[in-house]
Design a protein that fits this description.
The chain is an alpha+beta fold. It is 25% helix and 31% strand. It has 4 domains: 41-127, Protein Yojf, Chain: A, CATH 2.70.180; 135-280, Trna Endonuclease, Chain: A, domain 1 (3-Layer(aba) Sandwich), CATH 3.40.1350; 291-391, no CATH class; 394-540, 3-Layer(aba) Sandwich (Trna Endonuclease, Chain: A, domain 1). It has helices at 41-53, 135-156, 202-206, 208-223, 242-248, 291-297, 299-308, 365-378, 388-391, 394-404, 457-473, 476-479, 508-512, and strands spanning 59-62, 65-69, 74-78, 85-89, 94-105, 108-115, 122-127, 161-166, 180-186, 189-195, 228-237, 257-264, 269-273, 283-284, 313-318, 321-326, 329-338, 345-351, 358-359, 413-426, 430-439, 444-449, 494-500, 521-526, 536-540. Strand 5 (94-105) and strand 6 form a beta hairpin.
Amino acid sequence: MRSPCGSTLGAARQPNEIPQPQCSFVTDLCLPNVHNSPVTPESLTRTVQDFLAEASGALVLEDGAVSFDLARAKYSISGEYNKCLLHLWSAERNAVRRVLDAEVKSGTLRLAVQRLGQSRPTKLEICRERDRRSPSARKAVRASYEQKLRRVIERHFPGFTITRLTSGVDLEKSFGPIYARGLLRQGQSAFAFLGVNASETQASIDAALTFAILWLDLCRERSGGKFLVEGLVMIVPHDCSSLVRERMANLNRSVAKWRLFEFNERHDSMVEIDCTDRGNIATRLVHAPNEASALQRFAASIARIQQILPGCEVAVLSPAEIAFRWRGLEFARARIAAEAVTLQSKQDIVFGVGAEERLLDDRNWTFFLQLLTTLRDSRHPYGARHHPLFRMHPERWLESLVKTDVSVIDERLEPESVYSQVPAFSAADRAMIDVLTLTRDGRLAVVELKADEDIHLPLQGLDYWARVHWHHERGEFLKFGYFGGRELSPLPPLLFLVAPALHVHPATDTILRYISPEIEWAFAGIDERWREGVKVVFRKRPV
């Protein structure tokens, strides 16, 4: 579905004429707060644009209920006809609201809006924080969960004693208040355990295994050899274990016993989940589009954009859609659409950064040119680091550099066979593999990139490796059109983890020690000035 809304920011110009930057959302995304200024459609539009520019993945609530998730939905804002109109749409629904007033408070944009055709205003909130509970409410739920967890563990593990149970903050060890953790002990035998309650976000549940491994390692360190911490008991909410189970299946079973449970707090029951079967992964692969055919089909749109911004990247998303990117940041798409009256096919271009999307037409052509000018002037290796367009999606920027010559990461990798942003859907999430490629002898390789410090890098890479391995065993990459029918090595994929050398999380080495030895991984630390060119400064492999 496309937005019909567009903004009139000046008279239409000729395609090759790039205007001088004007004071607008495009040229300066960090504008002063206009709340104390007179409320006009223009000021409201800028307030909403400023907030949403820094709120990727925000939740939109109307009348207290979540109506859109901007991690998947799109939006456009129009200040035309003396009205500020906010258009939101997703695969499930579509909504247009007239904005009457706006206020930013505690990370939430609160809007007074009016539905089309209705006179009575309603309230709409856009929240950066996906967990909308108050701090006191979160604290109360977590305290109650500790008591429930203690009771169900004591019932399920008779003969064991809980010697420690806490959800206190320990920033030095990377532990926050989300996870309840403790130690089960029986004589000289013990198990570390970690639980997460059903009120936490799915992202927190999926991330729990990282902190559980760190807790296991800390319990072993603190034991001082006085008793044996045999392994880990992991406890997640009912029907929320899919991603954790897939990751746990690829941990080293010679160094620890791994046990996974689902806890139904409503029924006060706990059931063990089998996490030993690596083959049972809920994932699906999409067909690789015919790039040559798609590029030919969209030749006119490509020429139109590249005439304005030479050197921009063109990515084929499907036979009917391509994306335009500048140093990894997507700013426009061309797609096949149907004429409203004749139903004949045509090509539309939509543009915007992040979740914002507008249909390109004569009315907003100047605005589009301003966006491209700002991209060119701000998103380059020596651009202003405080500028939002410089800061946005640094991993996509890094990915665009690695994709041009993946052999800079490891000389075994073949530069000619590279796919980026490969969909890796599973039952638990919808993610994208940063880079999928081959070694020179035809072995699959997964490259997971991080531009900033990220404690979850090892397990996210492990997750993607498992999905690629699953599809490879079933011959689906060749069946679905990847790698041009080239014969692939039957060996399991390689896993490459890449991050700036000074932004590697201190816990990374600990987590890597617990990955199954059957998985061949390598860590590449790159120079901090990677925007000027990717250079590996150190490499690490399993001992």
